[in-house]
Amino acid sequence: MSLILITPPEAEPLSLADAKHFLRVEHDYDDELIAALIAGARGHVEAATRRALMSQTWRLTLDAWPRHGRITVLLAPLREVVAAQVYDAAGLPRTIDPETFVVDAAASPGVIAFPPWVVAAPERSLAGIEIDVAAGYGEAAEDVPQPLLHAIRLLVAHWYENRGVTTEAGAQPMPAGVAPLIAPFRGIAL
Fold first, then answer.
1. Which residues have CB under 8 Å from 98's CB, separation 6+?
2. Whole-model pTM?
3. Quick check: 130 and 27 in contact, CB under 8 A?
4. Max Cα separation, the chain?
5. Beta strands in 90-162 (DSSP E)
6. What pLDDT is stored for residue 173 in this prediction?
7. Which fold has domain 2-53+140-185?
8. In Å, what is the CA distance from 143 to each residue of 12, 102, 130, 178?
9. Sequence spans of domains, the chain
10. What averages of pLDDT result for each successive group of 10 residues across the chain (190 residues)?
11. Rounded to whole angstroms, how far apart are CA atoms 113 and 46?
12. pLDDT given at position 188
């Protein structure tokens, strides 16, 4: 199964003005840099937690339907299935009604359930199934859990204040306060 970002978030969970206020920056010279740091920090928190913070659309591709009628998606919070299609032998898509699927919005990782006898089998051997899902806490920054938003603030501040500082391995050291903020939101691998 592959996950491909189709529609990125329309806005960042932390505005440029809020980031500048947190950084105590009163000039506009570093606005582009700070905006890039915000996007990078959001991406870092999303990757570390396997969560979409702001509303976005992702496409998952499958080679075959699971027999038990449940697809585990390593992305949370899932909100809904917005589109689905299965490909025939000629490579043409056949639309599947999104109402066929039930999303367990409380599960982490996300789960999409469906009656296996209702969906047609793909006739294309690779990536014969595409399901587009909406994920994220919402459209507004207020929808994002405060610990994750604060982790973004801390990352932006750390990266802004420590430009060019790297470890021997070439990575930038992480501020100590970020890991405890995102820990409750991380998926546990068994």
1. 80, 81, 82, 83, 84
2. 0.87
3. no
4. 61
5. 93-96, 102-104, 110-113, 129-135
6. 66
7. Hypothetical protein yqbg (1.10.3230)
8. 12, 23, 28, 19
9. 2-53+140-185, 56-135
10. 93 97 96 96 93 96 95 93 96 96 88 93 93 96 96 95 70 80 78
11. 24
12. 62
